[in-house]
């Protein structure tokens, strides 16, 4: 009963933190952008919406003509006092545009891959999440979002040539606003970690430094994939440090998650040019190896429950004490199914579209991998809660690109 209650609190808390952080970041900037959108900006390049992204007022259907936002006619007649109803609607449309732009900038679907880091770390070190685990989740969400905003700010010139539809080169988000958001989110992430205690801050500080180093200096160097892998592994260790005050028991799980991230990041380096079969082939091999470790390796209960797992009746093995690995095996196979197929397609045809699908598949596979690692530590209910984040990520991925 206690486990079920804890799991329910975990799931609700995770969803609440995810929604709160995303809303807090986008709302403040959206309000300012909406006010700007309601005023005419003659001659400004970013006053024209890219083709297909303008919505008809009240219909939700895209306008295929690519006309400027200013061409949307006011709806209704002027209200008493001289305030036209159309201005209200233009402001509402501008607010939706700004909200979508920030959702693209922060990679909203990818945010659902973040809470599982802390929950897997908590499972590996303490067995179940605590109230402080939610501070780790909030810190991770802030630092991850900061990295997304900083990444686009640093790559704005490159994106102008290769991805002109992105929020910064298209003018939907100002570079100064993206950099400000990255700084603010980094500060918020470190503040939440400090609130959780010194062990958490000890992990969060180098994690934040790694994120900034990757975006500003290491991304286009041979050390880039390793830096990204280190950041993801450290994020899992942040959950362990926040929950249990130590990270040693979570090192194996962090190594597996870091290996997966290394493979995905290596493939992503060619997602706009394509032409490489070696990277997706290596990622496919890494996925196969990780799946074998997840499905065939023994469960590793956290240190706090190891004595209970090994003190059962004579002749009962530790594996029997922790229960069969059916859930862990199922989640491991789900991880393989999510990542392997797009990798294989990119190996057969390394075109940019299929390479981008391989990257998206690798990112989405992070959630079942986190869930399998959590189940591997014996926290089955928490593993199911992590798995529940996958359909939410898929739902938003239909509207906003994950890469």
TrEMBL record:
Residues 31-50, 55-93, 293-324 are annotated as: Disordered. It is an enzyme of class 2 (transferase). It is found in: Membrane. It is a multi-pass membrane protein. This is SCO3242 family prenyltransferase. InterPro entries: Prenyltransferase_related, UbiA_prenyltransferase, UbiA_sf. Keywords: Membrane, Signal, Transferase, Transmembrane, Transmembrane helix. Residues 1-19 form the signal peptide. Its EC number is 2.5.1.-. Its main location: membrane. One of its GO terms (molecular function) is transferase activity. It comes from Streptomyces flavalbus. The keyword Signal applies. Residues 55-82 have a biased composition (Low complexity).
